[in-house]
Amino acid sequence: MTIFIQAYRYAAEPFFFAQSKEKNAKVLYARIMDYFIIIVSLIFLITMLFLDDFILYFIGKEYWSGRSVIPVLLLANLFLGVYYNLSIWYKLTGKTIWEHGSLPLVRLLP
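The chain above was modelled as a monomer; its predicted structure follows.
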């Protein structure tokens, strides 16, 4: 899932910048977000369904006790991908001061 999200990020950002001048760019961004969530959710579901049957054969038995953290990490990656997808707005609008969330508040402090 991490590899897919990173590949998506490298491909989507230039595409978003190229499409930013189009009239229906926001509708296109929303449709791409829908497809992204569908694909990443399928990756999550397939990984969880075949976790014990297939994936755990690639790791040693001494690490099987850590398999309970796999769903948490997969969901974290899913939400990170959604963040990447939603965070394109500040890049397109030129408001990169919001890139780090609370950075504008830190600048106001003495």
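The chain has a mean pLDDT of 82.
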